Amino acid sequence: MKLATWNVNSLRVRLEQVLAWSAEARPSVLALQETKMADDVFPTEALSEAGWQVEFAGQAAYNGVAVMADSPLERLADALPGFDDAQQRLLAVKVRDLVLVNVYVPNGQAVGADKYAYKLDWLKALEAYLKNLLQEHDRIAVVGDFNIAPEDRDVHDPVAWEGSVLVSEQERAAFRALCGLGLVDSFRLFEQPEQSYSWWDYRQAAFRRNRGLRIDHILMSPALAKRCKGVHIDAGPRAWPRPSDHTPVVAELD
DNA sequence: ATGGCCTCGGTTCGAGGA
């Protein structure tokens, strides 16, 4: 089975691309971020006509997460427990024989900004939530847009980016703390092309010049990682007309 | 280079993203 994640930067704008890509790639589970739409306008009908079961937790204009799958979905959580958050950034479901936690981690805007503090607080609450979840379940995948490039090799120009938001040491430490719970960055379980990225700025012809960051991730608990046969970034949709600035990341599991 | 580009809400531009 395939497990995929994609920040679509507006599901309203990208619905046809999501339908096209999912029909071609045939993931069993696809986690979406930045759907940017309220639940009452979510395109349930178009997706179910294409054979997908869906769960979603959205809001107008910003944020919003959703999961589509070829199998029944059971919602476990649509917010971080104990964290007062007006923004829809998390959706945890049971699907097939695993627990999927779909996250849209805050961007942080700039190191030291209020939004940066919110990002770090959010990541702390995520860590606490996942610590508990790992005590209850063996097979867990934590996927989505983490807005963190874990290492310099995940950054096209580490010198230019040094210390800035998405790569700062505090953000990277928060990412490592998640790995410290036993979760593994599944992409790095396998040999990968150098300069592999999942996001490219819309400006400066960044995609054509491959000036990107790897900030979209699929973390796996040990039991799930054992079943992982490969992970790749599918940069195809980033080259389509009117693309999202992110592209799908795909894991293959036994 | 103080930016460049894209999406949204709601107007004819500002906020937010990364």
N-to-C CA distance: 6 Å
The amount of beta strand, in percent, is: 25-35%
What's the overall average pLDDT, rounded?
Answer: 97
Please report the total strand number as a whole number. 14
Radius of gyration: 17 Å
Helix content: 25-40%
Spatially, the strands of the biggest sheet line up as 3-4-2-1-14-13
Describe the structure.
The protein is α+β, with helices and mostly antiparallel strands and 254 residues long. The protein is built from six helices and 14 strands. The chain has helices spanning 11-25, 44-49, 114-136, 158-161, 169-180, 222-225, and strands at residues 2-7, 29-33, 53-57, 65-69, 73-77, 90-95, 98-104, 140-145, 184-185, 199-200, 212-213, 216-220, 228-233, 249-253. Helix 3 packs parallel to helix 5 (169-180). The relative contact order is 0.16. The mean pLDDT is 97. The protein binds one DNA strand of 18 nucleotides through residues 9-10, 12-13, 34, 36, 60-62, 107-109, 115, 145, 147, 165-166, 199, 201-204, 206, 213, 215, 242, 244-246.
Task: Name a few traits of the molecule.
DNA-binding, 254 residues, single chain, alpha+beta, six-stranded mixed beta sheet
